[in-house]
Design goal:
Blueprint (H helix, E strand, L loop, with lengths): L2 E6 L4 H4 L4 H7 L10 H11 L1 E7 L1 E3 L2 E4 L1 H10 L4 E5 L6 H11 L5 E5 L2 H4 L9 H10 L3 E4 L14 H11 L5 E4 L6 H10 L3 E4 L10 H7 L7 E2 L9 H5 L9 H16 L5
Parallel strand pairs: 1-2, 2-5, 5-6, 6-7, 7-8, 8-9, 9-10
Antiparallel strand pairs: 3-4
């Protein structure tokens, strides 16, 4: 079975120069690596048996860090291996709506991602709400970040309750994929998964043997069809993340859902 990586990006030079990236380089014990290439990304995927990676665009208040156009070029270069995740400018909500309508109508873009800490705005801020409506209209998930913030920025925007809970109460049709596990608010994550049928989580930014024990218990129980693999390439390689997969002691069915089945359902990807 080919693995799906639910959170990756091919970084640009302008993204690699962001001051908050230095914290991530220190966490992952990497020197500043600059931009990644299509070839290095495909090689990292092949090493780990990843068939499809979802490549994210990034937009910050200061401007585009990885543009939708750049992601479209990456996807076009290897259409069997990549799908795009669009980014939007929250400070220009109608442009954001138009961008979603434009990009996700092209079948190679399968989601929209907004990272709240980057904007210093909780998900309940009014500027997000046109984006949520546009995602529902387009039939694509909203990908976001949950839990603490790795860079030296406030973690408050990553709280699931009350912020993301209120969003999903206001938009019950919205499919949400929360990246980066949600630590330290694992009890909130469990509650959200029970309460909302369209709430999912990916394990990006974690090597699997470092997952919080309470999270592992949840993903082997009632959360087994709500969790999908993600690496956060290039901060971690897929092979690094998956190195100790056996440590989780998943059943064959749980492993199939985690490594690709859930992502294929949520993002409407082709069967492997």
């Amino acid at each position: 079975m080919q693995i799906v990586d639910a959170w990756a990006q091919i970084t640009t030079e302008r993204m690699s120069r962001q001051p908050w990236m230095q914290t991530l380089y220190r966490w992952t014990r990497r020197s500043e690596a600059g931009a990644q290439s299509l070839a290095s990304t495909l090689a990292a995927m092949d090493e780990a048996g990843v068939g499809i990676a979802l490549l994210s665009a990034w937009h910050a208040p200061t401007g585009s860090l990885i543009s939708n156009e750049e992601v479209a070029e990456q996807v076009a270069a290897a259409p069997g291996r990549f799908r795009g995740v669009a980014s939007v400018d929250l400070f220009r909500p109608m442009d954001a709506v138009r961008d979603i309508r434009s990009w996700v109508e092209r079948s190679k873009f399968v989601a929209v991602r907004v990272v709240p800490w980057l904007w210093d705005l909780p998900p309940t801020d009014r500027r997000y709400y046109p984006v949520y409506a546009a995602c529902i209209e387009a039939g694509v998930p909203l990908c976001t970040q949950i839990g603490h913030t790795g860079p030296l920025r406030s973690s408050e925007t990553g709280r699931l309750i009350p912020y993301l809970e209120q969003v999903m109460l206001d938009f019950p049709e919205l499919v949400v994929v929360g990246g980066h596990v949600g630590f330290p608010w694992i009890d909130e994550l469990t509650t959200m998964a029970v309460k909302f049928e369209h709430f999912y989580v990916d394990t990006s930014a974690y090597v699997l043997h470092r997952l919080p024990p309470a999270f592992v218990d949840w993903m082997k129980g009632i959360g087994s069809r709500r969790v999908m693999f993600g690496s956060n390439w290039p901060m971690l390689t897929p092979a690094q993340c998956l190195k100790e997969l056996d440590h989780l002691q998943l059943t064959d069915e749980q492993s199939a859902d985690f490594l690709g089945g859930t992502a294929r359902r949520v993002f409407h990807l082709p069967a492997s």
